[in-house]
Amino acid sequence: MDGMVAVPPRQAQSAAGPQSEPGPGPEPGPEPGSESASAGWTSSSGRAGRFGVAFAAVWLVFLVDSLREAWSVAWGDRHAVAGWVGVVATLGFAVAYLAIFADVRSRRRRLSPPSPRRAWAMLGVLCALMAVMVTAIGQAGSAAVVYVVVVAVMTLPTRWAAAVTAALAVLVEWSGHVVPGWSDPEGLAFAVCTASFAMWGVSQLMLRNLDLLRAKEENARLAVSDERNRFARDLHDILGHSLTVITVKAELANRLLDVDPARARAELDDLERLSRDALADVRRAVQGYRDLTLPGELARAREALRAAGIEADLPHSTEEVPSEARELFAWTVREGVTNVIRHSGASRCTVRLGATAVEVRDDGDGCSEPAGSGHGLAGLRERAAAAGAVLVTRALEPRGFCLSVAMRSR
User: Which long-range contacts (CB under 8 A, 24 or more apart) does 228-235 make?
Assistant: First the structure.
């Protein structure tokens, strides 16, 4: 809304008929904060630039006829007071229009258009000044009607702006034929209507731009939310496994402290190493790195199961697993083994690897994750879906639980 085009009320007449140019209103400006914004009438921060209002002031040239008429009346032998009142009212109208223009422009760039009460107050000020101009200098003061219409379109809902435009157009046409000493406006009413329609089109374009800006902001907010959820899921997967192993080892060391001090000391050494590893994993997650390998997860699973007193039946090779599936399968092994240790009460855990699937089985109570606490499985299901795989959980007969992830055929 940085530029304006106006219809000169008197100059809107020609031998061919009235002109149909847009009214003195704002043009759609570049998006706030965009590259083009810094080069035009706005600053790079999206705030209204210094030249926007000055550029709009150029279109006040069509009030020159009103000012000239007021000046001639002021220096005449009669009605000098009325002339000076007309001069002051015309200048005041120009200043008020620029102030309203700057206010509306600034508010729209902040995505907060003026309230209806404020909009009607703005129109009231302009109409009052226009009434003073018309009273003081006569028909020449009606040049201000185009600016009033443009402000109405800028600030009011469409139906109210249309009503104001129609009322002012009828008033202009009626007064030119009824008021003594006034001449036929010859197209001024038509110029008011065309200026209003042109400004309405510009306003609709600006509203669409504002909708796009709001949609862009919402997309950015959703992207941040998704990233937060992803980080929370990764942190749960990393710390859930590590802290489970640390807890199991701490319990084992406590039980062995009086029975086998040497082994208890070894378990405590493992606790220190595991806690350091967990801290390193968290740091890598925060930094956005992925240091997860399928052989590494199998080795950690074997050690964690041993510490928990669960017999481990794990593969010794990962050669047949394709590279694009290894990270997902590593997460599956981590999540599955962590749930076996924490929830199953199993005495044996089996992991099976294939080129397109991985499976974690146990002989526990048939539930490797309690109802209502499925953050780990929910995160793993999201990972599987993103990789084009499917996660399946099922109870085994006579007892046990199975977690599997299989790549979909392509």
Answer: 231/285, 233/375, 233/378, 233/379, 233/382, 234/285, 234/379, 235/282, 235/285
Determine the straight-line distance between the first and last CA of the chain, rounded to whole angstroms.
52
3-state secondary structure the chain: CCCCECCCCCCCCCCCCCCCCCCECCCCCCCCCCHHHHHCCECCCCCECCHHHHHHHHHHHHHHHHHHHHHHHHCCCCCHHHHHHHHHHHHHHHHHHHHHHHHHHHHHHCCCCCCHHHHHHHHHHHHHHHHHHHHHHHHHHHHHHHHHHHHHHHHCCHHHHHHHHHHHHHHHHHHHHHCCCCCCCCCHHHHHHHHHHHHHHHHHHHHHHHHHHHHHHHHHHHHHHHHHHHHHHHHHHHHHHHHHHHHHHHHHHHHHCCCCHHHHHHHHHHHHHHHHHHHHHHHHHHCCCCCCCHHHHHHHHHHHHHHCCCEEECCCCCCCCCHHHHHHHHHHHHHHHHHHHHHHCCCEEEEEECCCEEEEEECCCCCCCCCCCCHHHHHHHHHHHHCCEEEEEEECCCCCEEEEEEECCC
The answer to whether residue 37 scores a pLDDT higher than 70 is: no
Of 26-30, 278-282, 335-339, 375-379, where does mean pLDDT reach its minimum? 26-30
213 φ, ψ to 5°?
Answer: -65, -45
Angstrom distance (rounded) from CA 293 to CA 299? 10
pLDDT greater than 90 at residue 362:
yes
Q: State the virtual CA torsion across 240, 242, 244, 248 in degrees, nearest 10.
A: 180
Adjacent-strand bridge partners of 349? 312, 362
Binned at pLDDT 50, 70 and 90, residue 293 comes out as confident
Domains of the chain: 35-219 (no CATH), 294-410 (3.30.565.10)
pTM across the whole model: 0.43
Which pLDDT score is estimated for 50?
A: 52
